[in-house]
Amino acid sequence: xxxxxxxxxxxxAFSMAAxxxxxxxxxxxxIARDIALAARQYSTLLENIEGxxxxxxxxxxxxxxxxxxxxxxxxxxxxxxxxxxEATGDAKWRTAxxxxxxxxxxxxxxxxxxxxxxxxxxxxxxxxxLDEYGAGGIAYRDxxxxxxTTLVTRFNPKVGSIQSWNLRPDQDWKFPVIVDNMMxxxxxxxxxxxxxxxxxxxxxxxxxxxxxxxxxxxxxxSYHVVDYDPVDGKVRSRVTHQGHADSSAWARGQAxxxxxxxxxxxxxxxxxxxxxxxxxxxxxINHPRLPADKVPYWxxxxxxxxxxxxxxxxxxxxxxxxxxxxxxxxxPLAHRYIAMAEQQLRSLSSPAxxxxxxGNGGFLLMHAxxxxxxxxxxxxxxxxxxxxxxxxxxxxxALPRPTKSP
Length: 406
Ligand code: GLY
Prior knowledge:
Blueprint: H1 3-9, H2 27-49, E1 55-60, E2 63-67, H3 76-88, H4 91-102, H5 116-130, H6 137-151, E3 155-156, E4 161-162, E5 176-178, H7 185-195, H8 199-214, E6 225-228, E7 235-239, H9 251-268, H10 271-285, H11 312-325, H12 333-348, E8 368-371, E9 376-380, H13 383-398
Antiparallel strand pairs: 1-2, 3-4, 5-6, 6-7, 8-9
Helix pairs in contact: 1-2, 2-3, 2-13, 3-4, 3-5, 3-13, 4-5, 5-6, 5-7, 6-7, 7-8, 9-10, 9-11, 11-12, 11-13, 12-13
The structure holds glycine (GLY).
């Protein structure tokens, strides 16, 4: 039985009546329950933001924060709506997704950000994948190609990377590159395939190779920011911005690296990308401070552990990445990745992390951490946590293999 049949079976009625034995719930029931709740939550979220400008990013102090297209997270809301359209087949989500996707259009010419991949690929990319021959087809392709063309203007061949942030008066950086930037390469790989212009691919591979050389430590963990000299391409410093310390392992940074190299292996089949993805996976899965429910603390090295906040968004990104990576390795490693992702999805689907119906402002996941050192977005919902949670559920649904080792 697929998700859509299950949802019909459930009559889309969602019951959070206390006491379901979550651990014993079948995979199909878990996914159907989550998607039914997601449909309910996002209906609430759509109502909550009606008449407001922009895109919902989080909820703090009971207020939904809306952000403009220029914010790096603007694409996740339309992206989540596309995933709901995919999971339910309900035209209502397609309509809402198309509306919010169109609102991200101006990002395609925005040279001031490296996050064009996040912003455009989540909405336009998923829209094109699901509606290739629909009315949006050509316009979606054009928006994505324009975005990729804008993104490569931030590439410096001497460094071999795309510049992440712009220079700021409060930082002594010359050409900062963050590990998160791996995520924007998916747009470039798509653009190379679609346009036949290999330059997009050359830039993406150069960036991934440079990051591989300079961002990682021997144990597979990564620095958040590597700053380069744009003239000679040399590394100037390795620091953090959103983590606990320069030498610490910020959980979401590890998640972006895992996802980024899994995705780049899918796109290139370069063995060194697979090796790096496996190394990052091993660092995370075997980490002595990964909690039993597999939802990481916001930073693996926060001395406040076990009192430190968790990051449910990192868990969702890791789960989605591991499900993809499991398709590139043989058992027993493949089973290990699936088992870990399943544990994460079961934890995130429990009342400890999943919103109660109608609560959490309409977002799905609770207990994410955005930017702890700045005291921002600690223990909140985050739109990218929801996006990758839905993506992971769809990947889990499509999984061709058994979920347990034989
Ligand atoms: N890319 C910014 C973050 O992960 O918070």
